[in-house]
Design a protein that fits this description.
Elements lengths: L1 E10 L2 E11 L4 E5 L6 H9 L6 E6 L2 E2 L5 H6 L2 E4 L11 H6 L15 H5 L1 H5 L10 H14 L4 E5 L7 H15 L10 E6 L2 H7 L2 E6 L2 E7 L5 H5 L5
Parallel strand pairs: 3-8, 3-9, 6-7, 7-8
Antiparallel strand pairs: 1-2, 1-4, 4-5, 9-10
Length: 236
C-alpha cells in the first residue's frame, strides 16, 4: 500500500500542497480529481520523489521513502506516466521502451510480450520514432514504458488529456486489467490515476479524492460518492 500522510509542499513562497493525505491499495484504482492548478501533479511529483516535500511522510510497502530519490523509488517498484507523456521523440518505439530497463536487474531487462497484447499498435511501430506517433499512440507508449519497469505502483497523470475517445477507451480497459491482476507478466499493483474527465474516472475508480487549492476536500470509496458534490469541484 501507498500511504501519503499530511504532506506539505512549497514552490518558493507558494504553498502547493496543504496537509495532503492519500492511500492507495494493491488491486485498487485510486483517482485524484480536481480542476487545473489545484495540486494534483504536485502530489504525483511528491510521491515519485521529483519534488521534495517540506513536511509529511510518503510510505510505500511499509517503508518511509520520503527522503528517497526518484531513481530509488523506481527501483522500489513505482512506475510513473507523467502529464504530457515525455516520450523521447528522436528515439524509436523500441528504444523508448528500453529506457524502462534502467531500474531493473540485468536478467529482467526484457520487454514483456503482454505489452504488445495490451497495445498492439506499438508492436507494429517498433522502429518508428516516438515523435512520429499520434498523441494517443504516444500516450500508449508512455504507459507501456512504465510497465516495462514491472511496477507494483503505477501512477498515471492525466492519461486521457488530448486523446481521441477510442484510445481513451483502450487505456481504460488496460487500467482495469492491470488493477484486477489479469496480466500474468505483472505483479499485483496499486494504481493512482489523476483525472479531470469525470466519467472516465468514475468508471474506473475504486476510491477517489478531490483536491482544491492544494487540499483534499472530498475522499472516499467511489461506491459511496455523491456525484453532484464531486462535479461542482470540477467545473470552471
Amino acid at each position: 500500500m501507498l500511504m501519503v500522510e499530511n504532506v506539505n509542499l512549497y514552490y518558493g513562497a507558494s504553498h502547493a500542497l496543504r496537509g495532503v493525505s492519500l492511500k492507495a491499495g494493491t488491486g485498487r484504482v485510486t483517482c485524484v480529481l480536481g480542476r487545473n492548478g489545484v495540486g494534483k501533479t504536485s502530489l504525483m511529483r511528491a510521491i515519485m520523489g521529483l519534488q521534495a516535500v517540506k513536511s509529511g511522510v510518503v510510505q510505500w510497502e511499509g517503508a518511509d521513502i520520503t527522503p528517497m530519490p526518484s531513481y530509488q523509488r523506481a527501483r522500489a517498484g513505482i512506475g510513473f506516466v507523467p502529464q504530457g507523456r515525455e516520450i523521447f521523440a528522436r528515439l524509436t518505439v523500441k528504444e523508448n521502451l528500453e529506457t524502462g530497463f534502467s531500474p531493473l536487474k540485468r536478467a529482467m531487462r526484457t520487454i514483456p510480450a503482454e505489452i504488445f497484447e495490451l497495445f498492439p499498435v506499438l508492436g507494429e511501430m517498433m522502429h518508428r520514432r516516438g515523435g512520429d506517433l499520434s498523441g494517443g499512440q504516444q500516450q500508449q507508449l508512455a504507459i507501456a514504458r512504465a510497465l516495462v519497469t514491472r511496477p507494483r505502483l503505477l501512477i498515471l497523470d492525466e492519461p486521457t488529456e488530448g486523446i481521441q475517445p477510442s484510445i481513451i477507451k483502450d487505456i481504460g480497459r488496460v487500467i482495469r486489467l492491470l488493477a484486477e491482476n489479469r496480466i500474468k507478466a505483472f505483479d499485483p499493483m496499486a494504481i493512482v490515476l489523476v483525472e479531470q474527465y469525470f466519467d472516465f474516472a468514475k468508471e474506473l475508480a475504486d476510491d477517489y479524492l478531490v483536491m482544491d487549492r492544494g487540499e483534499v476536500i472530498l475522499a472516499g470509496e467511489t461506491a459511496n460518492m455523491v456525484e453532484a458534490d464531486v462535479r461542482k469541484h470540477l467545473t470552471v
